[in-house]
Amino acid sequence: MPSDTAAIPRQAPSATPAPSARRRRSWRRRKASTLLVVVGVITILTVFPLVWMVTSSFKGADEVLSTDLLPSAPTVDNFEYVFSAAPFGRYLLNSFIVSVTVTVVALFFHSMAAYALARLRFPGRDAIFMGIFSTLLVTAPVVLVPLFLVVHRLGLLNSYAGLILPAIFSAFGIFLLRQFYLAIPAELEEAAVLDGCGYWRIYWSIIVPLSRSIFAALAVLFFLANWNAFLWPLVATTDTDLQVVQLGIVSFQDQNTTDWQYVLAAATVAAVPTLLAFAIFQRRIVESIKTSGLK
Amino acid sequence: MSTPTTSATEPASRPGAPRATDAGPTGGARSARARRERRAAYLFMAPNLIGLTIFVAIPMLLSIVLAFFRVDGFGGYDFVGFANFERMFADPYFLSSLGRTLLYLLVMVPGLFLSGLGLALLVRNKFPLVGLFRTALFAPNVVSLVVVALIWQFLLTDDVGFIARLLDRVGLTAPSWLGDPAFALPTVMVITIWFSMGYYMLIFLAGLQDIPREYYEVASIDGAGPWTTFRNITWPLLKPTSFFILLTSTIAVMTGGLDLLVILTGGGPANSTTLVIYYVYQQAFVYGEFGYAAAIGSFLVVILLAWSALLFALTKGGRFTHAQ
């Protein structure tokens, strides 16, 4: 950008402040309203399928395929049917047990490892970190087959342990927490060291309390990922007592292929906890996604 | 600004470094402290290292070993050398799934990149309700792929589905979106972009927010138009984000979305949505060909590693020299 052209307009606002400011303000207002309309339309189109699912789940069999957004006679029969025709309470409970256990244990283990990798000195630290980091490149679907064979060999198929254990260990949380711990000022630990605190005390009474906000963000992400997991539960369980909700709705659909009002009610039941968690924690989720891998 | 990998190779800051020299007046005390620190570190990492070894590292290695075996049912393993790989390159179904995956990549990586960037450029501005819009645009990413598949199966039902009726009203006949081999893969593409674009929007938004506002102020004072501003400021300063997105979206496109294919299309109709990752799944869990599946899976990992290496080489490790 040539600097000589820059000099002239820079003086302009002070010379004639009123008209140019007004022009800029009206231009800005026009820009804002255009954006409001454009983004508004895109957003409505984007959320439409989700809204359609929820409203259709309150429609009766006769109007589930109508093109009206809202049901003419809203009913909760579909939900009653879902819970009476299939053990949906059990499915939800299984998903809840698995998701919460994975989330709590993963946060605990990941933060321990991240603390060591960020704050302690020991031989092989960088190599271990790179080793952990490199596992990020290999995603779950790629190792699905060998993981299945390992879990089969361990005798963990068809058990809660088989659903939970493989889901706990991933490099993502360790990586994010390590980045966070690297930024903690050393003075906070130094006082504890002078007091003769052990490393566990430092971790438990200094590092963990400092991690509250990042724990909250990661907890929501972990919970969502595990609540939504489908493939691993599909290959790891055949026992109906162990079915998680995502498997539940697929098998429910197989039995009610054309009864869309029931299928959509089942899908709504599975989606509501995630949408609620998202609505409540959206700022934290958005922040953690924005910082994941980028900082 | 750094990508995950540059920060990974950066020497970690060493908060304990001055502490060690202050603490121990004698060499013996210092080495005792170092030993204690070392032991503590390994104990802190132990649960993860054991877990990652059993559930990530061993499966990864096993996948490579398995590629050289024939696995029958659940019993015997026969060493077959390179037979699985030879079979791969003579298998017309695998080769056609590979070609399909390439086409899928060529559409999806730019598709996700442009939709994410486009949305981010729109919602970075200040206007009424923008916060609500950002959240809502991300919402499809929050529900499970099972729910995504069901919603779209419902909307796209032949003849009586919402989309078919809508097109009918304007005098168009809707194709069988998921039943016609010509339309199934494009339909999967649109659905995937629908639920993924919000995620890429957020990543791009984070990158955009890292660009100092002063640059834009100077540009607007200079009278630079939107395109000039984008080309000279936004695009060059967004390069680390773009790099991150190219890398992660390629991995996601090649290996993700398996859930969707399993539920929505089952690879069909007429194999038209059988991407390589689905073929791996099918060989293993439908035909019980674990060795063959592992060979294809390993091939996929090699391709992804090569792609990552290429990206790193082209961008010198994801580091970019920022233009002013």
Automatic annotation (TrEMBL), chain A:
A cellular component term, taken from the record's GO annotations: plasma membrane
Biased composition, class Low complexity, residue ranges: 9-20
TM spans (from-to): 32-54, 91-115, 127-148, 160-181, 202-225, 260-281
GO terms, biological process: transmembrane transport
Source organism superkingdom: Bacteria
Coiled coil feature spans: none
Annotated PROSITE patterns: ABC_TM1
Compartment(s) where it occurs, according to its Swiss-Prot or TrEMBL record: Cell membrane
CDD domains documented for this protein: TM_PBP2
Region (Disordered) residue spans: 1-26
Keywords: Cell membrane, Membrane, Transmembrane, Transmembrane helix, Transport
SUPFAM superfamilies per record: MetI-like (SSF161098)
Record flagged with keyword Ribosomal protein: no
Bilayer topology: Multi-pass membrane protein
Annotated ABC transmembrane type-1 domain residues: 92-281
Family (UniProt): Belongs to the binding-protein-dependent transport system permease family.
PANTHER family, A to Z: ABC TRANSPORTER PERMEASE PROTEIN MG189-RELATED, ABC TRANSPORTER PERMEASE PROTEIN MG189-RELATED-RELATED
UniProt name for this protein: Carbohydrate ABC transporter permease
Species classification: Bacteria, Bacillati, Actinomycetota, Actinomycetes, Jiangellales
TrEMBL record, chain B:
Keywords: Cell membrane, Membrane, Transmembrane, Transmembrane helix, Transport
PROSITE patterns assigned to the protein according to its UniProt record, in alphabetical order: ABC_TM1
Gene Ontology, cellular component aspect: plasma membrane
Annotated spans, Disordered: 1-32
Matching Pfam families: BPD_transp_1
SUPFAM superfamilies, sorted: MetI-like (SSF161098)
Membrane topology: Multi-pass membrane protein
Keyword Phosphoprotein: no
Any single biological process term in GO: transmembrane transport
Bias type Low complexity, positions: 1-13
Family named by the database record: Belongs to the binding-protein-dependent transport system permease family.
Name assigned to this protein: Sugar ABC transporter permease
Species per Swiss-Prot/TrEMBL record: Jiangella asiatica
